[in-house]
Amino acid sequence: MMKFFRAFFILSVLTVFVLSIGAQEIVTADKYMEEISNIYAEINDYEAQISIISGTTQMDGSLSFKNPNLLRIDFSNPAEQVVLYDGKALTVYLPAYRVVLNQNAPAQGASLASN
Fold first, then answer.
1. SS (H, E, C) the chain
2. Which of 53, 91, 55, 54 lies closest to 73 in space, CA to CA?
3. Buried b vs exposed e over 24-34: b needs ≥16 C-beta within 10 Å?
4. First-to-last C-alpha distance (Å) of the chain
5. Which residues are within 8 A (CB) of 64 and not within 5 positions of it... i.e. 6 or more apart?
6. Tens digit of each residue's pLDDT, the chain (115 residues)
7. Cα dist from 17 to 6, 11, 21, 25, 44, whole Å
8. Which of 35, 56, 70, 89 is 20 to 30 Å from the Cα of 107, by its Cα?
9. Alpha-carbon span 40 to 38, nearest angstrom
10. Contacts of 69 (CB under 8 A, 6+ apart)
11. pTM greater than 0.90 (yes/no)
């Protein structure tokens, strides 16, 4: 009797699982990206720990973003390296070379991480 209930339970779970798969809507890549974009559009600011790997070089740091387009990355590796974007200009400080690099954004501006 116990084997019967066990088999019945497993069959019931499998039936529910198969029926639920068939009922799911197919989501296209465009629709999925639009849904993700809508979710991220609601974010005003965030902070994150990041790692950037390029070839054999790894950079680690703390990223801060404030909507609509303020960005700052303070690197711990390489130490004291900083990247800033204020919506008008990109500034990169490279302490190893004692240099500050500046570049103005395009006239129409640039949108960061929220679009």
1. CHHHHHHHHHHHHHHHHHHHHHHCCCCCHHHHHHHHHHHHHCCCEEEEEEEEEECCEEEEEEEEEECCCEEEEEEEECCCCEEEECCCEEEEEECCCCEEEEEECCCCCCCCCCC
2. 91
3. eeeeeeeeeee
4. 59
5. 45, 46, 47, 71, 72, 73, 74
6. 566 666 767 777 777 666 666 555 777 888 888 888 888 777 888 899 999 999 999 999 999 998 888 999 999 999 999 999 998 999 999 999 999 999 998 765 455 544 4
7. 17, 10, 6, 15, 38
8. 35
9. 6
10. 85, 86, 87, 109, 110, 111, 112
11. no
104, amino acid identity: N
Q: How many residues does the chain have?
A: 115
Tokens of 105: 């954004």
Amino acid at residue number 110: A
